[in-house]
Amino acid sequence: MISKLLRSLLIVTVLLGANSAFAAPRTVFVQLFEWPWNEVARECEVYLGPSGFSAVQVSPPHEHVKYNSAWWERYQVVSYKLESRGGNEAQFADMVRRCNAVGVDVYADVVLNHMAGFPQGVGFAGSTFTHKNYPGIYSPNDFHACGRNGNDNIINYRDLYELQFCQLVGLADLATGAPYVQQRIAEYMNHLLDLGVAGFRLDAAKHIPAKDLAQITKRLKRSAYVFQEIIHEAYGPVNYSDYFAAGDVTAYEYPFILGGSIKYGNLGNLLTISRYLPESEHSVVFVTNHDLERTGDGNILRYTGSDHNIYRLAQVYMLAYPYGYPQVYSGYDFNSYDQGPPVGPDLRTLGILNSDNTCVAPWTCEHRLPEVAAMVNFRNQTDKAFYVSNWNTDNTNYVAFSRGNLGFVALNFSGNPITREFQTGLSAGNYCDLTGPSYSRLNRKCTDMKYNVNSNGMTTVTLPPYSSLVLLNRDQYKRTK
Fold first, then answer.
1. Which structural domains are found in the chain, ordered by start?
2. What is the DSSP string of 306-369?
3. Considering the entire predicted model, what is its pTM?
4. Catalytic sites, residue numbers
């Protein structure tokens, strides 16, 4: 697997023909949930590449059930043909090529644990199936039959055998320990690598024995970045570290700790947010994702609704704080648990961007918020100071800290203005607020260097309600006249 350091320093792997124009570290990726391939390609060219994102995670490209439009249909595998509501194989390959050309890797969300959960059906490419029988791919002998609960479904999620050998909500559970199944899965992933994909998100990884995933990833024809969806529970029965042999893991408690600490005035927790999480070098972190968006958990922050202001600040904090590999989420506004993306009569996903590159509702395009691009640049530029200094908080209203002498961040999570003197760790001079209106994210130029840092590294500022101040080492941007 590619190490976190190498991933930070390389934009496109040497095997894909890295371009020296993208030599600066890129340290943040984005999940464009349910975006069709042609729209992802355009977004790489007009926004992700110029803004300095490392990669884009795309929805599963395999053939899936063609039933209605629910989000979960995308995760019900019919075959490994690259035909989905997001587009066909030619469109997928074109997307990967265009994203790579502007320095953006593509991570494919892959479903390895199961096939579909319907008794019978048809997929987007016209492939037919019955439960545990997928002509030309799998027969009943290639699936688990756990012999429990009358229907082979998981009931006790604390029982490791049920978790990994029974069916998740009726989905036909692949016998991932079988060499034939491992080889068929690896052939699918290797085909994606041949098309230029640089990495994979392994869906429902904790439902697959860790040793099986390690064997599958060993069959890949070349190095790829792998991270695994581990919806971790403190009571077990799986541990994050069980899965390190196959790749990184999703630090799933991170958004709960982040959101709860901000919402309920326990900001001191943010300094030690990683205390109960896997080591930074193994962790993917996020404020929310497509699963958490649909839940009713009060700790999870959402872009839409009453959380809007603190959600934006939480994104700034995640991108500033040196822990894990940050994933920025962008999808559509969920109004129900099963809601899928907007689709046409053919059930293919409708367009997201207007001709002027603005977004069409219900797509949120929250990755386009101006502070996100600024913070992607901040994290890229402060990568060499991957530690916190000058931590300052009153535990309830504000947080401030430095990234060595390369950058400084202050956030006001309250509805009142706050005036404070802060130690920035920066050299004396005038600075620009990267999250303010005078900073241009694309050309990294600033029209107003109004924040003064004295010879002792101190600055006195007033933070408006729900606002941030982000200062970057003055060598990293230019002043315009």
1. 4-381 (3.20.20.80), 389-479 (2.60.40.1180)
2. GGHHHHHHHHHHHHHS-SSEEEEEE-B--SSTT----B-TTSPBPP-B-TTSPBPTTB--GGGS
3. 0.94
4. 203, 229
